[in-house]
Design goal:
Elements (H helix, E strand, L loop, with lengths): L2 H4 L9 E2 L4 E5 L5 H11 L14 H12 L6 E6 L12 E9 L9 E8 L8 H12 L7 E7 L3 H9 L3 E11 L4 E10 L14
Parallel strand pairs: 5-6
Antiparallel strand pairs: 1-2, 2-3, 3-4, 4-5, 6-8, 7-8
């Protein structure tokens, strides 16, 4: 893909079918509150983020806008189609995932950190795996060659998910996070992706 194409942000939000029940698309400006609501659900459990206090829309607005304005570091939102005639623009967001810069230096542009968050009512049902698999297929078109997941060593479900999808341990950082009650280790998992990682026929634009 050309550099010009990589720097182009889609003007229309394409929607992709993940399963019969879920669709996924790039986040829009209206999605921030729902995205943060899901993120804030993960904070008390101290398994998925190093944030220790709930975050507000005002605190995360700049972060969100930075992703919206980036052609290669998107946030994707998953919406649940609760009925056959549901208006997709009003369907609830039940999960989201993002690609973020691994490091700010320009030469790191081929590598990115992946983050996945699910509404607590949709955890343990395979949605995280489906979303992550789909995001892997998007990476080559974004100029991404390496995907890194930074996961707490005590977050066994996330470690299992990424390892099931072919991620390998690329690093281990012992006792790097003070979680106010315990000290946490962080595991770096990585996977190289290629243009062969393309969408299967089940993820067609609708």
């Amino acid at each position: 893909m050309s550099a010009a194409a990589l720097n182009t942000i889609p003007t229309e939000l394409s929607t992709y079918q993940l399963t019969d029940q879920f669709v996924v698309q790039r986040a829009s400006k209206e999605d921030l509150a729902e995205v943060l609501a899901i993120y804030n659900q993960s904070i008390p459990g101290k398994q998925a983020t190093a944030n220790l206090a709930l975050v507000t829309v005002e605190e995360r607005a700049a972060w969100f806008d930075e992703h919206l304005d980036s052609a290669t570091r998107p946030i994707y939102v998953v919406k649940a189609l609760l009925s056959d005639d549901v208006d997709q623009t009003k369907a609830p967001i039940v999960a989201w995932g993002s690609f973020s810069d691994l490091y700010a230096r320009t030469a790191y542009h081929i590598s990115t950190e992946i983050s996945i968050y699910l509404n607590q009512d949709y955890q343990g049902k395979g949605l995280g795996s489906v979303l992550t698999r789909w995001m892997l297929t998007q990476a080559p078109s974004l100029g991404i060659r390496n995907i890194i997941a930074l996961v707490f060593a005590h977050n066994h479900p996330s470690l299992g998910l990424f390892r099931k999808l072919g991620f390998e341990q690329w690093g281990y950082m012992p006792e790097v996070c003070d979680m106010e009650g315990f000290i946490a280790d962080v595991v770096m998992l990585g996977k190289a992706v290629t243009s062969d990682d393309i969408l299967d026929k089940a993820s067609e634009t609708i």
